[in-house]
Design goal:
Length: 164
């Protein structure tokens, strides 16, 4: 009888942890390296009265290298992953991102859809919004061309985007 009580308590504890973690959404809106925000805000203000050349607002130092739509694997996801080079540094940017939260979600750059050969970009910063992750210097982004949302405790691929 005591064993069953312990099992039930463990199941309830784990279930509660997973449920409340999954429903804990965090929103983050980080500036895009592709747009100089001060010039962009000024241009949007000017657009009320006249047409503004949007090309003037693009930061010439930042370049879009690759992009890909997020795809569902274990959980629903929306948004796009961008690979941007800005002043010699590479950034993975999530745009219009929306996913379910989970326990210990990490962002990986990987050569495949597993956790055997990857570069760890760190824990997920937010489950919704526009988010930037710095790529460590020297990472071969042609080899590591898949962005994974990986749940470490359960070794589960939540979702991914292939950068092309």
């Amino acid at each position: 009888m005591k064993v069953w009580i312990i099992i039930v308590l463990l199941v309830l504890g784990i279930g509660s942890y997973v449920y409340f973690t999954a429903n804990n959404n965090v929103v983050l809106e980080e500036d895009s390296p592709l747009v100089n925000s001060n010039e962009f805000d000024a241009a949007m203000e000017d657009m009320k009265d006249k047409v503004v050349e949007m090309d003037e607002n693009i930061n010439s130092k930042a370049n879009l290298i690759a992009e890909g739509d997020f795809r569902e694997k274990a959980h629903h996801v929306e948004g796009k992953a961008l690979l941007i080079e800005n002043e010699g540094k590479k950034i993975v940017r999530f745009e219009n991102f929306d996913t379910l939260n989970g326990p210990a979600l990490y962002i990986y750059l990987s050569s495949d859809l597993g956790d055997g050969d990857f570069v760890d970009l760190g824990p997920i910063k937010a489950t919704k919004g526009n988010i930037n992750y710095e790529v460590p210097e020297g990472v071969d982004t042609e080899k590591y061309n898949k962005v994974l949302i990986w749940c470490r405790p359960f070794s589960v691929l939540f979702s991914y985007a292939e950068l092309k």
